[in-house]
Structure prediction request, 302 residues.
Amino acid sequence: MPVFTFPGQGSQFPGMGADFFDEFPDLMRQADEVLGYSIRQLCTESGGARLRRTRFAQPAIYTVNVLAYLRFQRETGLRPSYLLGHSLGEYCALFAAGAFDFATGLRLVALRGELMGEADGGAMAAVIGLTAEQVRQAIDDWAGGGIWVANLNAPNQVVISGHADQVRAARDHFLAAGADRYVPLPVSGAFHSPLMSAAQARYEQILARTAIGVPQIPVVANLTGRPHAAGGVWASLAACGRRWRRAGVAGGSDLRHRPMDRQHPAAAPARRNPVHRDRRAAGTHPDDHPDCRAHHVMVRTM
Prediction:
């Protein structure tokens, strides 16, 4: 039973997607029209300065994820039994499931990235080695306030989000509470926290005017960790919190990871998409990024 997983923000890197752009000229044209700038230039420009900004990173990741998926489908014809994606990766999963077309998904992701990018002054960190309950207790014991649980990535990996000064100052507090590691994430806002409430309210207004169809392939929701129910896609996309641990469990506890670009020779060119890159490239390697549980557009089999 193949399960395809799409990564979210943090997996981007300069040069991603370069192998795909010439293969999908119509989608590239649509992307440029929707965004008002060249997606090829964004992904390939030297240094990747814009890719470090949320408003640019999110549409870039969505676009290259989709192209990687379409390339894989074209070369293998393997149909997924389930789809899921981490945070913005859920939009890629919904596209693959036929809930909306490429341009509609890109418009939503671009607006999402723009609104989230406006919420400066926040930060996030991964707390590794503590359960969600232990992290919540540590937050209750933190005198500074301004920190919340954002993502439940794994049983012993929880992402916190909040005011930048508090997230930075709380490192020793969480280590003293028993955390093995405390890893600041390369993001510019307090995503998936109450500090995003104003942006979330504006985004909900746009979502309410967007036609989203019923997924033709089951898509596991970030919000519930279960396949989207009829009419439930809107609520998941509008929600703030991300419960990735539940989504992983929903796909089955005996999943064997098979990155598509490693397992299928026909898909080998996918190495240069957001899901796989040379560790020498600048920035954080997706395999080291604790907020990105799906480090590859990945095929899982049960």
